[in-house]
Amino acid sequence: MEGLLMIARTPKQIGAAIRRQRRKLALTQADLGEQTKLRQATVSAVEAGEPGTQIRTLCDILAALDLEFVIQPRTKASVDEIGDIF
């Protein structure tokens, strides 16, 4: 996703971005689970934005998908406008 900035403010938006990248790479949840040593059910929960995801788990998934966190001040766009991106 070089050059494409995705803004995610909620767990569901983060999960949607992860799902989109996983599919772009033609990986199943099981494939991603094998790469990260996570269960497929854990990958599914992260993609669904379920609560309780450990930061380490999220970082492992992002690394496997060649994605990264960027922490910066919030833009002025509303959550609804950002939700439209997904």
Automatic annotation (TrEMBL):
Domain HTH cro/C1-type: 18-72
InterPro entries the UniProt entry points to: Cro/C1-type_HTH, Lambda_DNA-bd_dom_sf
GO MF annotations, alphabetized: DNA binding
Pfam families, per the entry: HTH_3
Segments passing through the bilayer: none
Domain of life per record: Bacteria
SUPFAM superfamilies registered for this protein in UniProt: lambda repressor-like DNA-binding domains
Name of the protein in its database record: Transcriptional regulator, XRE family
